Amino acid sequence: MTLRVTVWNENVHETTEPEIMPHYPEGIHGALASGLRELLGDGVAVTTATLDEPEHGLTDAVLASTDVLVWWGHLAHDRVSDEVVDRVQRQVLGGMGLVVLHSGHFSKIFTRLMGTTCSLRWRDDGDRELVYTVAPHHPITAGVPHPIVIPAHETYGEFFDIPAPDELVFVSGFSGGEVFRSGAAYRRGNGRVFYFSPGDQKYPVYTQPEIRRVIANACEWARRVGDSVPFAAKVEKGWMLRP
Amino acid sequence: MTLRVTVWNENVHETTEPEIMPHYPEGIHGALASGLRELLGDGVAVTTATLDEPEHGLTDAVLASTDVLVWWGHLAHDRVSDEVVDRVQRQVLGGMGLVVLHSGHFSKIFTRLMGTTCSLRWRDDGDRELVYTVAPHHPITAGVPHPIVIPAHETYGEFFDIPAPDELVFVSGFSGGEVFRSGAAYRRGNGRVFYFSPGDQKYPVYTQPEIRRVIANACEWARRVGDSVPFAAKVEKGWMLRP
Amino acid sequence: MTLRVTVWNENVHETTEPEIMPHYPEGIHGALASGLRELLGDGVAVTTATLDEPEHGLTDAVLASTDVLVWWGHLAHDRVSDEVVDRVQRQVLGGMGLVVLHSGHFSKIFTRLMGTTCSLRWRDDGDRELVYTVAPHHPITAGVPHPIVIPAHETYGEFFDIPAPDELVFVSGFSGGEVFRSGAAYRRGNGRVFYFSPGDQKYPVYTQPEIRRVIANACEWARRVGDSVPFAAKVEKGWMLRP
Amino acid sequence: MTLRVTVWNENVHETTEPEIMPHYPEGIHGALASGLRELLGDGVAVTTATLDEPEHGLTDAVLASTDVLVWWGHLAHDRVSDEVVDRVQRQVLGGMGLVVLHSGHFSKIFTRLMGTTCSLRWRDDGDRELVYTVAPHHPITAGVPHPIVIPAHETYGEFFDIPAPDELVFVSGFSGGEVFRSGAAYRRGNGRVFYFSPGDQKYPVYTQPEIRRVIANACEWARRVGDSVPFAAKVEKGWMLRP
Q: For chains B and D, what is the number of CB pairs under 8 angstroms?
C-alpha cells in the first residue's frame, strides 16, 4: 500500500538567506521529497508543506491522509501555532509516524512529545561526522553502511536531553571529539517517532545517498498503524467478557 | 541528609464533599505526610501545599528547597496554572524528584512530562487490587510484600497510554479481571519521576502500611540529584580538552 | 518473500501421555503449523521438527534455511543437546527469529539468551486468562482483541525472572488473581526473540483464533534479517574512511 | 553499612609479561583495590582474588560475603572454570553486584549474563578516549567530569554486541573516529551489572582519579540487595490472600 509522506519544512533559510544553501535549490523539503521518491518509487506518495501556508499546510485533512510526517525546522519554531502542534501531537498518538530531523530537536512538536528540553551542545566547524549503527537488527539500518561518513557537518554533542530512547539506533562521532545519539526511536501512543540528527542547512547532507536511505527506512518504519487516539473510558465490570 | 518532601494535593474532595472520605480527616495530603513521617522519621522534612494557596503553594522558593514533590490531583487538573506547571517541569528536569499518585495520571505536569494522553480505563466497584512486584531489585520495592493486597479500590485498567517506562516496577490485577501497570519509573532531564496508581479518595489506601512503604521508598529513590536544567550551549572546538 | 518457519516441539506429551491432549491429534507442532498456514497462507512455508529426530531435526542446513524458529518444550528441556542449543543461539544472534512458547521459558535456548533463571510461579486450576495489550503500536498486536479471553488455562504468575523486555507487549491477568508479563520482545545480536506464555498442553489454546493470530504476527515480526553473527574484529586506524 | 567488594583479576599479564604494565606494580587488582579504598574509605572493605587461587579465590563463602564483584580478565577467560561461573551467575541473580571491566566483555560470566557474543571492534594505537555521560541523573556519574579525558588508550568500537542496556550511562569517542557504548547498566534477577570499558593493561587508566570515581560509584550502585535467587514455585490458588 502506498506510503503517504508529508514533508514539512519551515522554509525560512531558503526564502531569506538562499545564498547559504545553494545545494538545495528546491528547498530542504524539495531535497527530502526527491530522496524519498528516488528510493521508494511507486511505493510512496510525497507531498510537502511549509510554514507560510494556511495552517502551515497541516490541516486536519492533510494530516488525516498522512502516514508519516517528516519535520525540518530551525529558525521559526516559535512561529508554529500551538493549535497545529496540538493537531500533530494527536495524530502521532493516534498512529501517524513522525520523523524529526536535525534542528527539529527544538521544535514544539518534538519537545512536547519528549517532555524534556531536548537541548544539546553544538558548534559549526565543518567536522567530519561518522554515524555508527548500534542496533543492526533495526529496519531503519537496512542497507546503511557502518559507519555513514558525512564529510563535513555541523557538530551536535552530548548531553542531549531526551528521554532514554525506546531504541537507540545510531551514535555519531565527530572529528573534533564530540559524540551524539544521532538516531533515536520512540513510541508514543499508537505512533512512532524517529529523531535523526543529520543535516544542517549549510551542508548538502540530504543529497547524500546513505542519509536518504536512513530517512526512507525511517518513513517505512514509522508508517501509520491506526487513526485512533487513546482515550479515557469508564467501563462496566466484566466488559471484557461480553461479546 | 534530610530528605525534603513537599506533598501537593488539590484538596478539593476534602473541602467540597468531605463525607466521601472520612478516612482522611487531615486531607489526603495530611495522610501522605503522616505516612512519610512515620516511615522516614528524622530523615525527612515534610511540608504540604494545596491548590488554593497563592501560586498553589509552589513558589520558586518552595520548589528550590524541595527534593521530592508528591502530587495528588483529580477534579481540578485544569485549575492548576500553566505557569506553575512550567515551573515544576523545570524543577524536575533540573533534578527534583516527582511522585505522581493515582488520578494524577491526568495532571498537567504528568501528561506534559510524558508527552502522551496518559488515558486509561476505569470503573469503581470496590474491587480487590493485588499489586505485584515485577522488578524485585528496584529500591522502591524494598520491604514491600509480593503482592500488596488492597482489599477494595477503584479499578484502573489497560491500555494506559504512557511511554514505555524506563523501569516497570509494579503490575496490578483487579478482582474483576483488569490488569494495570501500577508502578512506573522514568527519568526526565536530571530528575526522576515515579507514577504509582493506588489510591482513590474513596478508599483509605494511604493509611495502609505497605502503600506507605512504597511511597516512602519512592521519595527516597527520587531524591533530588542536582539543580541545573539541561541547556543548549554553543561550544568551541576542543572545549573538552581545555582545563 | 515466503517466510520460512520451523516449528519445533519436543513431542513428549503427545507420544507418552496422549490422553491428556486430545485437542492436538497432530501434536502441538501440528496445531501450530496449521495455525500459521491458515493465517499466512502462501506467504509462509512451515516445516516441523521434533526432539527424537537426528540432531532434534535442527541441523545446520535446516536452521540456515529457517527465518523463524518456533519453540515448544516442557518435560524434556534437558534432553536437548548443548550442541544444538549452541547452533540455535548462533543462528538467532546471526538474525534468525525465535518465538518461544509457554513452558519454553525454561528451555536451554531461552534461558541462555536471557542470562537469568526465567523462573516463575505456576498452578493449574483451569483459570480464565485475559491477555491485555500494553503496546498497541506493536505489529504483534495487529488484529488482536483487547483482551484475548482464554476460557481455561494453566496459571503463570510473577515474579517472572527475565531481563526487562525490550518491548513489553502483553500482560495477562488470571481469574485467581495472578498477573504475568505474557508477551515479551527482545533483540539479541541481529535476531529477534518473542516469548508468549499461552498455551499449556492440557488446554486447546493453539486452536484459538486470537492466539494463532499472535503467533503468526510474531513470526512475521521476528523474520530473519541477516545471517551473520556479530564477531570480534581487529581494525586498522582509519578503517572507516577507506573505500 | 560497609560495602564488601571483591576485586577479581586473572593476573596473567602481571605474572607473565610484567614489563608491559609498569604502572601496576601491585597488579591490576591491586590498583583497583587502592582506588576503591582511596575513594570509599571506611565505607568499603576490599579483598582481591585471582585465577590461580583454589577455585579462583571465589568460593561459596567468599561470594556469599561479597556485595560487589569487580571483574578483570583478558587472556585467560577460558581458564575460568564453568563451575565458578555458575556460582557467580547465581550470586548475581540472587542480588550480588557485578562490575565488569574492559576486556571482561568476553569473559564467561559476562557473555553468559548477556546471552550475546559481546564482540566488538578494537585496535591499539594509543588514541585519546573521551568518555561522555549520557545519563546525568545516574548515580554512577556523580562527580564525574563530562567528558572524562583518557589521554591514551586502546580503542574499542561499535558494533558492540550486547543487549540494549537497561540504562546507557556513558558513550566514548576515540581520536581515530570510533564510538563505543562504554558504560552500560543491567539488572539480572535481583542483581545489578555494570560494564565499563576503560582500561587496558598497557595504559595506567586505573590510576586516573575520574576512572576510579566511576568504578567506586559503580560499586555503590551495584551493592547487593538480597541473597535469594529467583526460583520456580508451584502455588495454590489464592496463595496471595492468605496471611
A: 38
Q: What pLDDT, on the 0 to 100 scale, is given for residue B231? A: 94
Q: Do D119 and C176 touch (CB under 8 A)?
A: no
Calculate how close chain C gets to A147, using CA atoms only, in Å: 7
Q: By C-alpha distance, which of A241, C232, D238 is closest to B177?
A: A241
- Decide if C149 and A192 are in contact by the 8 Å CB cutoff: no
Indicate yes or no: CB of A230 within 8 angstroms of CB of C189.
no
Reading the block at residue C99, the C-alpha cell is 518465538
> Is there a contact between A51 and A10 (Cβ–Cβ < 8 Å)?
yes
Confidence at C75, pLDDT banded by 50, 70, 90: very high
DSSP 8-state symbol, D137: T
Say if A204 falls within a structural domain.
Answer: yes
| C96 vs A77: CA distance, rounded Å | 44
Q: Which amino acid type is present at position C52?
A: D
Residue spans of chain A under pLDDT 50: none
- Which pLDDT does position B19 carry in this prediction? 86
Q: Do B133 and C175 touch (CB under 8 A)?
A: no
Query: Which residues span the domain enclosing D196?
Result: 3-116+180-230
Residues of chain B in Cβ contact (below 8 Å) with chain C: 128, 130, 132-136, 146, 157-160, 164, 167-168, 171-175, 177-179, 181
Q: What is the mean pLDDT of chain D?
A: 97
The CATH number of whichever domain residue A52 belongs to comes to 3.40.50.880
- φ, ψ for residue C162, nearest 5 deg: -120, 155
Q: Indicate yes or no: CB of C173 within 8 angstroms of CB of B159.
A: no
Q: Which residues contact C163 (CB under 8 A, 6 or more apart)?
A: C114, C115, C116, C186, D163, D166, D186, D187, D188
pLDDT for res C20? 81
How far does Cα D203 stand from its chain's mean position? 18
Given an 8 Å threshold on Cβ–Cβ distance, is C177 in contact with D240?
A: yes
All partners of chain B with 3 or more CB pairs under 8 angstroms: A, C, D
Q: What is the ipTM of this complex?
A: 0.96
Please judge whether D137 and B240 are an interchain contact, meaning their C-beta atoms are less than 8 angstroms apart: no
- Show Cβ contacts of residue A83 under 8 Å, excluding neighbours closer than 6 positions: none
Size of interface A-B (CB pairs under 8 A): 107
Q: In whole angstroms, what is the distance from residue A182 CA to residue A160 CA?
A: 10
DSSP tag of D188: E
CA distance D96 to chain C (A): 14
For residue D187, which of B217, C181, C163 has the smallest C-alpha distance? C163
C-alpha span between C182 and C154 (Å, rounded): 12
Q: Is residue A104 part of a domain?
A: yes
Residue A171 lies in a domain: no
For residue C48, being part of any structural domain is answered with yes
Residue C145 carries which side chain, given as an amino acid letter?
P
Count of residues making up chain C: 243
Q: How many domains does chain A have?
A: 1
Quick check: A135 and D174 CB within 8 A? Answer: no
Closest CB from D177, D186, D233 relative to C240: D177
Nearest to C137 among A130, A139, A225 (CB): A225
Q: Label residues D163-188 b or e (16+ Cβ within 10 Å = b).
A: bbbbbbbbbbbbbbbbbbbbbbbbbb
